[in-house]
């Protein structure tokens, strides 16, 4: 019998709808030739929805997300639409908290055709994964920080419960990467344990988990030094795990190493749910022009296929995840259908169509 997977789709704001439509089309095309199917459920949420209806994440959308097998999300938020306290609408952060998506997975992989600012020797292969804790850290008090006339306070929270889950996830991912032939079996805890007690606690929890994973090489790095090494010797990293705000900043630096946000995918994963979305935001400056780069969104969809495949032990989904990623890399490597952010002239549709054609010709 054919398995049907329910996918909650948040097309979001700005360029969101433009990059979501061709991505869903690719997934549909893939499922048509495979022994699985998708039921795509459109879910309303975001800044435009808030401006119109006064709520950013309707209960009905939350319910759909909770009952879905996976969630595909483009980007939400618009600088012109804000809550009364001046902060931007970001239901994706609410989703992470409500669905307990503690592990933000941000792969950084430099392959031919990317506009990396690095000068790499042939043997210097950059292929690492940053895992950003996504439910607490300095984002814990989001929307609840105290601001008076003279001072502002936000609270950072690190809990044993979340950290234990996060580190178990990180060790497991490191092991799986090595087993698949892509990783070195090395996991680095990124913190600021030399200055803050909270990070000494974070590091101690990491060390306690490391003892249970003798097959993984566990080490530490301070976040400031990590930023430096991302630029000077990124090929030395394999998997890194860090706090929410540090991860937020480092993942954009990682996207920079890949040549820009338009090619940086991500996943926010918990024990029961997962959201797949590009690292970039809603890019309102180019929205509506049909020139947004769809590659980060398509690569995020590839991560979704792989995750679903592992979760449901479905070889066809895992194979299609690999093939979708390979098709994106082939199109970028060929350099003929690149969008403006990558120096090309292709439209969003043309770039996505090139991936679809490559994929279906395999
Ligand atoms: P957020 O805070 O929501 O992550 P942001 O403020 O970092 O968003 P983005 O919306 O990611 O900003 O946009 C940053 C810059 O990158 C903008 O100039 C935008 O046009 C560009 N950009 C982002 N995503 C894409 C894309 N998919 N294709 C082309 N350009 C993009």
UniProtKB/TrEMBL annotation:
Residues 6-355 form the Isopropylmalate dehydrogenase-like domain. GO terms for biological process: L-leucine biosynthetic process. InterPro entries: ICDH/IPMDH, IsoCit/isopropylmalate_DH_CS, IsoPropMal-DH-like_dom. Keywords: Amino-acid biosynthesis, Branched-chain amino acid biosynthesis, Leucine biosynthesis, Magnesium, Manganese, Metal-binding, NAD, Oxidoreductase. It is an enzyme of class 1 (oxidoreductase). PROSITE patterns: IDH_IMDH. Its EC number is 1.1.1.85. Its cofactor is Mg(2+); Mn(2+). Coiled coil: none annotated. GO terms for molecular function: 3-isopropylmalate dehydrogenase activity; magnesium ion binding; NAD binding. The keyword Magnesium applies. SUPFAM superfamilies: Isocitrate/Isopropylmalate dehydrogenase-like (SSF53659). Belongs to the isocitrate and isopropylmalate dehydrogenases family. LeuB type 1 subfamily. Homodimer. This is 3-isopropylmalate dehydrogenase. It comes from Roseobacter denitrificans (strain ATCC 33942 / OCh 114) (Erythrobacter sp. (strain OCh 114)). The lineage of its organism: Bacteria, Pseudomonadati, Pseudomonadota, Alphaproteobacteria, Rhodobacterales.
């Amino acid at each position: 019998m054919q398995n049907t997977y329910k996918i909650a789709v948040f097309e979001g704001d700005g360029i969101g709808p433009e990059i979501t439509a061709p991505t869903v089309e690719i997934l549909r095309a893939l499922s048509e030739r495979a022994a699985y199917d998708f039921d795509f459920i459109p879910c309303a949420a975001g800044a435009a929805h808030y401006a119109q209806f006064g709520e950013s994440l309707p209960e009905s959308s939350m319910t759909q997300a909770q009952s879905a097998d996976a969630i595909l999300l483009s980007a939400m938020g618009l600088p012109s639409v804000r809550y009364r306290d001046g902060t931007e609408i970001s239901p994706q952060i609410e989703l992470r908290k409500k669905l307990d998506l503690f592990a933000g997975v941000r792969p950084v992989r430099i392959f031919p055709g990317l506009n990396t600012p690095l000068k790499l020797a042939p043997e210097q292969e950059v292929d690492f994964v940053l895992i950003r804790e996504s439910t607490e850290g300095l984002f814990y008090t989001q929307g609840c920080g105290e601001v008076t006339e003279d001072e502002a306070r936000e609270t950072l929270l690190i809990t044993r419960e979340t950290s234990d889950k996060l580190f178990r996830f990180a060790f497991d991912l490191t092991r799986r990467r090595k087993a698949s032939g892509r990783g070195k079996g090395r996991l680095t805890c990124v913190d600021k344990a030399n200055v803050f007690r909270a990070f000494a606690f974070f590091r101690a929890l990491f060390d306690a988990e490391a003892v249970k994973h003798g097959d993984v090489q566990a080490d530490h790095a301070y976040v400031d030094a990590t930023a430096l090494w991302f630029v000077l010797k990124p090929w030395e990293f394999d998997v890194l795990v860090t706090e929410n705000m540090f991860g937020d900043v480092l993942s954009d630096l990682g996207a920079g190493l890949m040549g820009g946000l338009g090619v940086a995918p991500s996943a926010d994963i918990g024990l029961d749910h997962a959201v797949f979305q590009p690292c970039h935001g809603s890019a309102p400056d180019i929205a509506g022009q049909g020139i947004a780069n769809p590659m980060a969104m398509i690569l995020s969809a590839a991560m979704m296929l792989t995750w679903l495949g592992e979760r449901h032990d479905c070889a066809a989904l895992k194979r299609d995840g690999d093939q979708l990623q390979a098709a994106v890399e082939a199109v970028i490597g060929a350099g003929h259908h690149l969008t403006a952010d990558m120096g090309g002239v292709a439209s969003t549709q043309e770039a996505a169509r090139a991936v679809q054609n490559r994929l279906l010709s395999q």
